[in-house]
């Protein structure tokens, strides 16, 4: 069991999930260092009590120094944009694969106890059977999905070859306060809320029957902290972090309320649904925030 009052490092800590995680770790009594190059993150997401370094995660030597004395590292830094990865595979590979190798090497050299890697359900791609279980063969449909899957393999390899404790958490459609509503990778809930706040219709791709396993950021943050502290992981295990329930995009629009506009469908998996039994067993984790509760909170935040 990893105890409190230890130094920890959060890469990508100026991002949506990373900022929430850094704040929660501080509240738990950890001394938090955030590393982010601010290419996608925002400086104001970094909690004021965290130590901040504006740094490219591929700077392994600097990372090693920063990680010195850290008990564990949460690796969230990534370029998480599917369409961008299709158009810019070299640039995204450098960050999503090269950056992960750099983090693992730095953690190894700095004597870190454990690396908790933010993986992605995009590694599954299209699957015939639901729910999605961790032992299904990966079937990524974008460079981003492939890159995040390669990161999992590197984590397991580092555990086997270098005896560095690692665990990979596959996130499913994380939403919550501060989620991005911009760009092609915008989260549908955040996008709908912004559209409603601006007085426009919510744009639904296709018929809206496609489903997603929407998972609240607070539950994802708790999974990270449990993964750091658990005595039952550390050998590169891959663990789904999903609510275990899915809802259609049309249902999300219904919960938010307001007019909708249907636009052309796009190439994307039709459904996602996590089997979260491994998280329950190994981490003692279970989701606590329902989609209905989460959307009510966000509607209040957006004054809807």
Q: What attributes does this structure have?
A:
304 residues; alpha/beta; Rossmann fold; seven-stranded parallel beta sheet; two-stranded parallel ribbon; 10 helices; 13 strands; 38% helix
What is the radius of gyration computed over CA atoms, rounded to a whole number of angstroms?
18 Å
Strand content: 15-25%
Which consecutive residue ranges, at least 5 long each, have pLDDT under 50?
none
Please provide the ordered H/E string of secondary-structure elements.
EHEEHEHHEHEEHEEEHEEHEHH
Number of strands: 13
In helices, the fraction of residues equals: 25-40%
Average pLDDT for all residues: 95
CATH topology of the domain at 7-175 and 216-242 and 274-287: Rossmann fold
């Amino acid at each position: 069991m990893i105890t409190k009052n230890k130094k920890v490092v959060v890469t990508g800590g100026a991002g949506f999930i990373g900022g929430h995680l850094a704040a929660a770790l501080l509240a738990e009594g950890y001394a938090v260092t955030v590393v982010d190059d601010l290419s996608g993150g925002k400086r104001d997401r970094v909690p004021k009590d965290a130590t901040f370094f504006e740094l490219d995660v591929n700077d392994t030597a600097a990372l090693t120094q920063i990680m010195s004395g850290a008990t564990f590292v949460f690796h969230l830094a990534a370029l998480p944009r599917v369409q961008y990865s299709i158009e810019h595979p070299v640039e995204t590979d450098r960050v999503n694969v090269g950056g992960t190798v750099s983090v693992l090497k730095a953690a190894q050299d700095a004597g870190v106890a454990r690396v908790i890697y933010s993986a992605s359900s995009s590694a599954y791609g299209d699957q015939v059977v639901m729910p999605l279980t961790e032992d299904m063969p990966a079937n990524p449909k974008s460079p981003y999905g492939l890159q995040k899957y390669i990161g999992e393999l590197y984590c397991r390899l580092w555990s086997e070859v270098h005896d560095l404790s690692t665990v990979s958490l596959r996130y499913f459609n994380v939403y919550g306060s501060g989620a991005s509503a911009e760009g092609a990778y915008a989260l549908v809930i955040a996008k709908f809320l912004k559209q409603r706040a601006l007085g426009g219709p919510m744009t639904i791709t296709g018929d809206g029957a496609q489903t997603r396993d929407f998972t609240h950021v607070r539950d994802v943050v708790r999974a990270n902290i449990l993964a750091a502290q658990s005595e039952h992981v550390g050998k590169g295990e891959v663990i789904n972090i999903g609510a275990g329930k899915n809802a259609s995009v049309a249902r999300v629009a219904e919960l938010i309320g307001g007019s909708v506009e249907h636009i052309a469908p796009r190439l994307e998996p039709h459904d996602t649904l996590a089997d979260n039994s491994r998280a329950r067993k190994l981490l003692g984790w279970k989701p606590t925030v329902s989609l209905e509760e989460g959307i009510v909170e966000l509607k209040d935040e957006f004054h809807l």
